[in-house]
Amino acid sequence: MTPSPKGILFPKPTPRRTEKQRRKRADVAWIRLVRKDVILRDGGCRSCQELGLSPDNAGLPMQMHELVYRSKTRGLPIEERVNTRNCILLCEFCHSAIHAKMLSVFVEDARKGADGQLRFKLWQRNERDGAGLPGVRKEEIPISD
């Protein structure tokens, strides 16, 4: 057996905490790159553009949304979990509407994912379970089919 460069026959393994921090930094850097690509591709809220919602939402901060949640893809490499095929840019209003089950996203071409055509459906309160978005009256939400 040849000793390691430090002269130790069996060097100490890298602590698990250090490995986890290194992996987390690499994941954050990858997500940052994907977010830049998504912003360049979408330019604004994909839902507002598709549904023709009022430009008042244009002043809201933009957020990246994964079509397949990260919790569902746990265990896969970060490149498969977060990529432009799985991510879209939404305004804060539309993002909260998706998580409140008031807005649904449908992918037209599964191979292209979010890089292809998307269809959005804004649900009325009686069409979906749940009370809807806080502070938004039904009359204020334009419904498009």
Coarse morphology? elongated
Instruction: Count the DSSP helices.
Output: 4
Q: What is the helix/strand order?
A: HHEHEHEE
| Largest sheet: spatial strand order | 1-2
- The gyration radius over C-alpha positions equals 21 Å
How many strands, what sense, and barrel or not for the largest sheet?
2 strands, antiparallel
How many domains in all? Answer: 1
Overall description:
The chain has 145 residues and is α+β, with helices and mostly antiparallel strands. The protein has one domain. Helices cover 31% and strands 14% of the residues. It has helices at residues 16-42, 46-51, 78-81, 92-99; strands spanning 62-66, 87-91, 103-107, 118-122. The strands form two sheets. It has a two-stranded antiparallel sheet. Strands 3-4 form a two-stranded antiparallel sheet. The longest helix has 27 residues, at 16-42. It is elongated and about 70 Å long. The termini are far apart. The model is unreliable at 129-145 (pLDDT under 50).
